[in-house]
Design brief:
Layout (H helix, E strand, L loop, with lengths): L1 E5 L5 E6 L13 E6 L2 H5 L12 E3 L8 H13 L7 E6 L1 H13 L5 E6 L2 H7 L7 E3 L2 E5 L7 E5 L8 H18 L1 H7 L3 H5 L3 H21 L14 H11 L6 H18 L8 H11 L6 H8 L5 H9 L4 E2 L2 E9 L2 E7 L2 H8 L3
Parallel strand pairs: 2-9, 3-4, 3-5, 5-6, 6-9
Antiparallel strand pairs: 1-2, 7-8, 10-11, 11-12
Helix pairs in contact: 2-3, 4-5, 4-8, 5-6, 5-8, 5-10, 9-10, 9-13, 10-11, 10-14, 13-14
The structure holds nicotinamide-adenine-dinucleotide.
Amino acid sequence: MAQIAIEASRPYAVHIGPGLLTELPQPDGPTVILSDSTVAPLYADRLSNLRTSDPIIVPPGEDSKSFATLERVLGELANAGLDRSGTLLALGGGVIGDLGGLAASLYMRGIEVIHCPTTLLSMVDSSVGGKTAVNLASGKNLAGTFKQPQAVYADVETLGTLEIEELRSGFGEVIKSALIGDADLLEWIEPQTEACLAGDPEVLTEIVTRCVRVKARVVSADEREAGRRKVLNLGHTFAHAIEQVAGYGEIPHGVAVAVGLVLALEAGAEIQLLEDSSLPGRVGDLLEKLGLPRNLDELRERSGNSLAPPALQRAMSLDKKSAQGSPRFVLVRRAGSVEPDSPLNEGLIESLLTPR
Ligand SMILES: NC(=O)c1ccc[n+]([C@@H]2O[C@H](COP(=O)([O-])OP(=O)(O)OC[C@H]3O[C@@H](n4cnc5c(N)ncnc54)[C@H](O)[C@@H]3O)[C@@H](O)[C@H]2O)c1
């Protein structure tokens, strides 16, 4: 079991380990569980020692990050008689965390939220740091708030029921965390990719703990993304363009991030920022062992989508992280050290995206 302190404006702890769900302390005030219809039948029972109202269950998947579902959740919080002393307990992946966090920040101008992430991606990334959101027709995560939780409980045992593709996808964010702030984590994972994918609880506890430490350092230094927090977007300018061009939901986020990492490494090598020329190949090999595409061409082949360079470039120029239409990139100097805000010229981007 590990415990990591997040030094945000509202400090809290992230608890990580197998079996945590059955040990959750009773939250103060009336409590409601929010979950999805895949996770609730698997894990809501493990919270049965807590006094809670009937759980609010939404359909699984990205479509639940909508205003319509948010409105329904807010209505059900009211129907459950929750007052301002209430707590929403978000049990599920990043969709439930983002939706639940936003509902908690809006209901009666803010109630407590406790995150119980159940996917690798939500344990290492979305449950920590306080970003909440729903999607708009014009883009992903365009309506949201910052809402730091009261606590996070990552029970790695829940990862045992995750579809293997979801687990693989989570490793995209794991490798991102290693490149941002924990070079040793790459070395640590390399010889034990099989144990990682087999869901070994000790291995996963170590991985989640180390990734959360990286995120904790970044978020504690820059809670609202005024500067340094941008490093968490490593690979994401490329990834969001890939997801948008393929059609949201077609390519899992973590898979797009994995390919985005390789593109960011290649870009860094091209402009001679990357000090370790073996790193793109090394990361490619690791992604391959984890069952992820090792580069953009392999993703094109696997997905059957041409992911045409002009479409990707158009999508990148509309990215939230653009400055006056020119996308900014997080680039890697060496494993564990990144540059948060680099422009890249159009010609270089085009050549990186061109099929080889
Ligand atoms: N707030 C942030 O900082 C942040 C960061 C990264 C990503 N996100 C958001 O996170 C979302 C993606 O999160 P995700 O990948 O966890 O997706 P998700 O919540 O959709 O979960 C993926 C699928 O796995 C199922 N599932 C979840 N836990 C399970 C378990 N233990 N066993 C079996 N099935 C399980 C879910 O029902 C769902 O079908 C995106 O909307 C993304 O925008 C937010």
